[in-house]
Amino acid sequence: MVTIRLSRGGAKKQPFYHVVATDSRARRDGRYIERLGYYNPVARGDSTAVQLDLERLDYWISVGGQMSDRVRKVVKDYKKSAAAAA
User: Fold this and answer.
1) For residue 41, which of 5, 34, 47, 76 sits 20 to 30 Å off, Cα-Cα?
2) Full-model pTM
3) Strand pairing of 2-11 and 66-67?
4) Owning domain of residue 18
5) How many other CB atoms are there within 10 angstroms of residue 46's CB atom?
6) How far, CA to CA in Å, does 77 sit from each of 13, 69, 81?
7) What is the CATH number of the domain that holds 33?
8) DSSP of 32-74
């Protein structure tokens, strides 16, 4: 089954996450099928906290991909902020 989840990167105390579509049996930071965007929870100033490819995200959901709870919250907040900016 395909899972859409966060893959951690960044330094100690400076997390940076990639939003990836991966096989649910793969390790958290292991092999993935496709990178869909990123989430930077410690973004400051004019740096972007979230960047997502919503078309590809919708594709993976349409073919049966399941989002993790944290990704679901990140996507919801991203869509809300994108709608407010438009």
Assistant:
1) 34
2) 0.91
3) parallel
4) 2-85
5) 5
6) 23, 13, 6
7) 3.30.1320.10
8) -SEEEEEE-TT--TTS-SEEE-HHHHHHHHHTT-EE-HHHHHH
